[in-house]
Amino acid sequence: MCAGAAVGYIVLHPASVIIYDKLGPVFVSLLTSAASAFDLSHIWMAMYFAFIGGAFGLIHGLNHYRTAILYAKVKRLSITDALTGLFNRRFLTECLNREYHRSERYNGELSLIMIDIDHFKNYNDVHGHQAGDRLLQAMAGRIRIIARKTDIVARYGGEEFVILMPDTPISMAIHLAERLRRDIASFPFENRETQPEGKVTISVGCAQHDEGVGAGVDQLIRMADDCLYRAKNRGRNKIWY
């Protein structure tokens, strides 16, 4: 806005005076009219064009701000799961690839937690998909609260969630997974009394990337998924690593 006002006063205002005065030869007219533009007799015109320039500057600035806000919103939506508000699978894959290669390069530790809601199909069959969606939203909220700020929490698909933990050994991942398992089992989710044992529970698989072990990101995901599968096969509401 200030830049627009300056342009209006220094450029538009003298230009208008030059056109208005029409003095003598063109070159002399330009010089004398430009000089006279800043006389007190033209102060009203100067203020007018400064206002016009400032208004255009303000509109231009607001348009840039609006464009930036819209871009940020579109970008956020492109990496967010619409139902739960967590990161989506595509963004998780990008982060996982980046953190995996970083851990390879700097010999760092990287852990992955895979979570699945126990008997979720039974919950949907009994209470309907809308109630199932509300359970997924509530579950996402509990996971977000328990996870650290440095962790990347995403909905992997269906009733599965993933926590990516950069610079973290598997011992800390197991500790967080156990905290989460206990919290979920005791939390008063809607309709939990209709689930087996009268509560909503989760099964959790934990895996860690070890340098020189495995074939990359896919192998790390497969390790966590295998651990999750074992936790489910051993009675659910368990952690396996």
Note down, in words, how this protein is organized.
The chain is of the alpha+beta class and 241 residues long. It folds into two domains: 2-78; 89-240, 2-Layer Sandwich (Alpha-Beta Plaits), CATH 3.30.70. 60% of the residues lie in helices and 13% in strands. The chain is built from eight helices and five strands, in the order H-H-H-H-E-H-H-E-E-H-E-H-E. The chain has helices at residues 2-21, 26-36, 43-78, 89-106, 120-127, 129-146, 170-186, 217-233, and strands at residues 110-117, 152-157, 160-166, 202-209, 239-240. A five-stranded mixed sheet has the order 2-3-1-4-5, sandwiched between helices. Helix 1 runs antiparallel to helix 3 and helix 5 crosses helix 6. The longest helix has 36 residues, at 43-78. The protein is flat and about 80 Å long. The two termini are 60 Å apart. Residues 23-32 have low confidence and may be disordered.
Record keyword descriptors for this entry.
Alpha-Beta Plaits, single chain, 241 residues, 8 helices, alpha+beta
